[in-house]
Structure formats: C-alpha cells, structure tokens
Automatic annotation (TrEMBL):
UniProt keywords, alphabetically: DNA-binding
Lineage: Bacteria, Bacillati, Actinomycetota, Actinomycetes, Micromonosporales
Organism field: Micromonospora aurantiaca
GO MF entries: DNA binding
Domain of life: Bacteria
Entry protein name: DNA-binding protein
Amino acid sequence: MAKRLRLMGSAEIRVMLGGVSRQRVYQITNRRDFPEPVATLQMGNVWLAEDVERWIAERRPED
C-alpha cells in the first residue's frame, strides 16, 4: 500500500503554531531555515507535513 502524502498550507501551520497571525506565518515560512515548499499552488505554498512538524519540534521543544 502506498504511503499517503501529507501536505500542509499556511492555515495548517497557523494552527500548529498556536493560532499566530497570517503575517507571522508568512515571516516564519520565509526564513532561510524553514523547509522549502514542495509546490506552489494558486492558494499559496504547500509543504510536507513531516518537514514542518520536524522544524517546529526542533525549535519549540515540549516542556
């Protein structure tokens, strides 16, 4: 069985970061150390969910 491709847009990233503003998501996703998007659609960039989750985990460790 093929592995499902999990994608994430800026709205999902907002939720994962605790509801930050759209402007803040734009700033974060344009950082040099943020993962590259896997595609650019008319609605905007999309990223692999695992790349975004890893990036967040590395920078926001759980207490």
